[in-house]
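fyi for ur records
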Amino acid sequence: MLSALWAAGGPVTAAVVQESVPGAAYTTVLTILTRLCDKGLVTRRREGRGHVYAPVDDQAGVVAAGMHSLLDEGGDRAAVLARFVSELSDEDEQLLEQVLHGEPPGRE
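which gave:
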């Protein structure tokens, strides 16, 4: 559902989200959007007789928050980070190094 909201580029109705999720029942879409609202991932605003929904954060922000959450639950932070970094591809390692040094991503 979040990917449908990100793709929409602005607040949309549940019916618009449903169109982006083949085979999903309208009530299922409403239930999931309500749960995403309850978790603080989506906002809901009254518009006319219904509501429009929008993501609170972009995809990168949601993934980063998930990574922080997993890191917080991982116990030994140093061990978790060391394992994560040791399994990065060369390209991802270079990208991470650029980000840590405050360089714009993609610069060589």
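Residues 59-101 form one domain. thats all i got for now
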